[in-house]
Amino acid sequence: MQDPRFSKEDIMDFDVKWETAKFDQHLAKDTTVRDGWKSVSVDISVPNGKEHASEVDAPVFSVPGLFYRPLIEVIKAAVQDIGDRCFHYTPFKQFWTPSPGSPPQRIYDQIYLSDAMVEAHTALQNQPREPNCTLERVILSMMFWSDSTHLASFGDASLWPLYLFFRNQSKWLRVKPRSNVCHHVAYFPKVCPFFFMSFSWCSLSKLISVAR
């Protein structure tokens, strides 16, 4: 508002509450972005200390508010990004010769240098191709991490995210926060207090340990 080009006449009809409500309505709609966030409820079969003929007969508790991003769309967005230049799609074996005449030593410092990746890549190349498909076939190795994250220095506000890393990228790149190679794919909700009220027959301390 201190800019000399600002004119108070431009905001004479501006209503903060009205504009904020419009933002809220927009955010409440389902996103059209393919790798955007979605919300679903998850039904969980909960043991109640009784024997049942089948798991489908066990009590079911619905946990709302699981936010997630479609995994296939996250993968597409990641490999199409400019950072894709750092992906290693062809695994290989790396050796080091300490001195002339000494036997070479195998180096294991990246996932894409491992026997598991090399063998998986070879097995994929040996499979019959899809009819009329000439695309390159590669192994995309993924690893997931999850742990509770505190949101503030004081208080107990927290989230429980699920992270995705691609092991086709160097570990030296993955450890750099500014490299932006960590993908958030889900946020796990906490079980509401009604859950514990519904299953009060169980020892509360034991129930809490498995109800995160």
TrEMBL record:
Alphabetical list of InterPro entries matching this protein: Plavaka
Protein name per its UniProtKB record: Uncharacterized protein
Lineage of the species this protein comes from: Eukaryota, Fungi, Dikarya, Basidiomycota, Agaricomycotina
